[in-house]
Design goal:
The chain is built from 1 helix and 5 strands. The chain is mainly beta. The protein has one domain. A hairpin with a 2-residue loop joins strand 4 and strand 5. The structure holds copper (II) ion.
Length: 54
């Protein structure tokens, strides 16, 4: 999934659009394209894996 996020200080990231993987594909079915979401994620090797999306 591709997601535009605001700056994240703890990661030293500026605002950007980037790819996240989903821990559980069922999470994505609830999210509409263009929706604003609260995302929790963890780093897994080179990937960022969404663990919770609201
Ligand atoms: Cu980013």
């Amino acid at each position: 999934m591709s997601l535009a996020h605001e700056p994240i200080k703890s990661m030293n990231w500026p605002a950007m659009t980037m790819a996240f993987k989903a821990k559980d594909k069922a999470m994505l079915e609830k999210v509409k394209p263009g929706a604003k979401v609260d995302l929790r994620f963890e780093q897994s090797g080179k990937d960022y894996v969404a663990t919770d999306i609201k």
